[in-house]
Amino acid sequence: MENINNEMRITDEARGYLLSTSKWTKFLAITMFVCIGIVIFSVLLLTILGNAIPSTPQTAMFGPAYWLFISIFYLIYLFPTYYMYQFAVKIQRALASDDTMTMTEAFKFQKMSAKFVGIMLIILFGLCLLAIPAAIAVGVAAAM
Phi/psi class of residue 96: alpha, beta or left (left: φ > 0; alpha: ψ in -120 to 50)? Predict the structure, then answer.
């Protein structure tokens, strides 16, 4: 495919792939929004009803700090989910109207989603690497 104007052209096949990808991405994003909502609602419900649940050794580990951690994790995960949803909506709009600017914006949201998840993974791996010496230190201290 020779291009005289130095502009990229999207073939019908690529257009089909993008449309299919956008539908699945939209489905995933909506599913994640629903899951995040259910988890946050559950955390709020358990916080409100927490005093009514009898404390046993098995339930003692599920204290307020645990629920706060879970809530923060899911609230943070709202960002890449929102970015995924915006990618899906904008790519569908761009393909329907042949709008290059909207397609560029869609790819910006796709990049933001991937970058956010990548940074979170780097942070998670870093925390795991820090946890290894901490676990060893706790094990050594407990053995003494």
Answer: alpha
Report pLDDT digits (tens) over 27-56: 999 999 999 999 888 888 877 776 666 666
The pair of structure tokens assigned to 56 is 């046993």
Helices assigned H by DSSP within the chain: 12-49, 64-76, 78-97, 100-143
The stretch 10-18 carries a mean pLDDT of 94
Cβ atoms of 115 and 79 within 8 Å: the answer is no
The position carrying tokens 């809530």 is: 71
Q: What is the mean pLDDT of residues 68-78?
A: 88
Q: Is the separation of the CB atoms in 56 and 111 below 8 Å?
A: no
DSSP 8-state symbol, 5? S
Q: Quick check: 82 and 28 in contact, CB under 8 A?
A: no
Q: How far is CA 105 from CA 51, 95, 116, in A?
A: 48, 12, 16
Write the CB contacts of 100 (distance below 8 Å, at least 6 apart in sequence): 94
Percent over 90 (pLDDT), the chain? 60
